[in-house]
Amino acid sequence: MLSFVVNDSLIKFVSASMDAPQLIFLRGLLASLGLILLSATVFKLPPWRESLGHICHRWVSLRSFLDGMASLVYLSALFNMPLANATAINMSTPLLIALLSALLLGQRVSGRHWGIIGAGFFGVLLVVQPQADGFNSWAWVALAGTLFHALRDLTVRFIPAHVPSFLVTLSTAITATLMAGLWAVWYPWQSVTWTQWGLMSAAAVFLSIGYFLLIKATRIADLSVIAPFRYMGLLAAVVIGFLVWSDVPNALAWAGMGLLVAAGLMMIHISRPPA
Question: Are 16 and 25 within 8 A, CB to CB?
């Protein structure tokens, strides 16, 4: 989550001087090229034909498609509604994951888990403090993007264990980049400065790290345990916002952050196997 927040912070500087579709495409292109370079120099991957087969696996392809859809749909809503409202809706992803885990995967979600996740979601609302008058028709689009996020994370459990997580990461980056490229066709393009290239390159590194760690986490840990830690991304965003842009949370936001931390710690405690 920290990697994703750092990525968002870096592209925030670039977004002031570049349209979002071009920015998302170029960042994704850099991330994909970097991952391809790593696959050839650092990671010991299967032969290229076997690797291509893994990337084209139906569950890997489905996860990549869902990730691309989640990004494009959610961003479409974000451009047309208040940021606080969109953020609050997107933070409902853990609740949707818990519900879909019970319905689709047959996982048991206890009452304590529901209570802690619900408390965490209430903490999110205290932090972002959405306004009721901002909940318009675009909120349904944001909710659709959130549903894509939840479905994306669920599909990881169906990916065979022998498929390297790095290849899943690479497939996700390439698919999302291609989808952003199709979106960018409808927007005018502009020249890119060396500073913009540098910031996007750094963002691409953190984006790739975030993708890889998220995939690893969802493959080895129970989804109901992972869910509350998504809230830590919001906490990291508040901290970076204070350090970089001097944004100071109010009393309600501080209370929400405390509730989020408490929810995460409680989830770890009750999910820890007995000694």
Answer: no
Helices of type H across the chain: 2-15, 20-41, 48-55, 58-78, 83-90, 93-100, 111-128, 138-155, 165-184, 194-220, 223-226, 231-245, 251-271
Query: DSSP letters of 154-184?
Result: HHGGGS-TTS-HHHHHHHHHHHHHHHHHHHH
Q: What is the pLDDT of residues 11-44, one digit of tens each?
A: 877 877 888 788 888 988 888 888 777 776 766 6
Residue spans of the domains in the chain: they are 2-271
Predicted local confidence at residue 100, as pLDDT = 79
Q: Measure the CA–CA gap between 236 and 233, rounded to whole angstroms.
A: 5
Which of 219, 231, 192, 180 shows the shortest CA–CA distance to 63? 219
Q: pLDDT per residue over 177-212, tens digit each?
A: 899 899 888 888 889 999 999 998 998 888 888 877
Query: What confidence tier does 247 reach under pLDDT thresholds 50, 70, 90?
Result: low
Q: Using DSSP, state whether 246 is helix, strand or coil.
A: coil
Question: Please, how many CA atoms are within 13 Å of residue 130, restricted to the half-sphere of its CB?
Answer: 22
